[in-house]
Amino acid sequence: MPPAVRLLAIARAVNQLGAFTLPFLAVVLTVELGASLPVASLVLALFGVATIPSRLVGGQLADRLGRKRTIVIGLVGCAIAQILIALAQDLWSAVAAVALLGLMFEIYEPPSQAVVADLTQPANRPAAYILFGAVMGTAAVAAGLLASLVSHWNLRWLFAIDAATCLACAALIAAALPRHTRTPKTEPERVPEVGGSPWRDQRLLILLATGTAFAVLYLQLTTTLPLTLLQRDLPASSAGIVLSASAITLVVGQRLLRARMLRGLDTFRVMTLGYALLGAGLLANGFARSLSTFVGAAALWSLGQLILLGHTQAIVASVAPEHLRARYLAAYGVSWGVAGTIAPLVGIQLLAASGPATLWTACALTAATLALLQPTIRRQLTQTTQSRRSTSGSRTRPAA
């Protein structure tokens, strides 16, 4: 990777050391602050709603203030919110802190993703995003073990540790990341933008719809999986062990994904494989009763996540005009805010009403549907791109 991308990966790895707080947020709300499961689901939904403007603000700031400044602003804001959660003495103060965390939480994502896209060629972007995820996965191994140990003592310390790592990451970015990360060697724009707005690009809207469905599934693993473990009579600390197993899989899986078989497949066939692995792991969550079975399930859904996260970001970056790349990535990132609102409301309510088997079977069926839709999505994106090229050519053709 280019030096700036390597630096960003190292900084995010530092941040990842304390980034295991969200899976324990529902536990803190219910166990320590006395919230019921329905109330906890509403608080987590509030967090999801708050992340929607957070992403959009991050994209706007990245294109106006620069990648570096925006990343630092987002990380410092996250640290302040995490400290407030750790110090919360009642449910309402925790709710306010959770809302603030949501508003800050996604600001640094669009500029971080844009830095990777700025400095890599299209053919290398999936590998760059996957490798970026694997570096963060290495730190997540230690983070999961740390979370498992600290959760035996006091869950609030997890939020204090996360705040400290956010500040350390911000300091590293401020000191060492170049102010200008765009390179003049990036590929020329192949398709002109429409009106300068990502919201008018039909390709992005297609990706946004499927990305939201994927994000809903992904977020079940940080909202309802810890509660599922509790329902299976496993201690809260087991969530840290399962997530550590997931992180190890991300590291090992990054090497497996270099296999010739995967390199010979096009992007959307690889995406189909990713959804199949994700669905198998989610289905296993619904019927697992021992910690070892949950760990085995984590290996499956983590491989699926690794494939899907790397390739979806690369697809979005490839359809975006270079000067609007951060805004496209931010617009696509709205899927996570929408999913953050839907996932806890649907997931926790379904878990409380019908139990783990129903919840995770529904998730697996959704993943299977997304796998079957990939050929259709590829066809729609290709047709829309060709139509835009044709329209652009007719507008610029000189008169006879």
TrEMBL record:
Entry keywords, A to Z: Cell membrane, Membrane, Transmembrane, Transmembrane helix, Transport
Keyword Repeat carried by entry: no
Subcellular location: Cell membrane
GO cellular component: plasma membrane
Membrane protein topology class: Multi-pass membrane protein
All residue ranges annotated as the Major facilitator superfamily (MFS) profile domain in the record: 4-379
Pfam families: MFS_1
GO molecular function, one term: transmembrane transporter activity
Transmembrane segments: 7-29, 35-57, 69-85, 91-108, 129-151, 157-177, 204-222, 234-256, 268-288, 294-317, 329-351, 357-373
Protein name: MFS family permease
Entry coiled-coil feature ranges: none
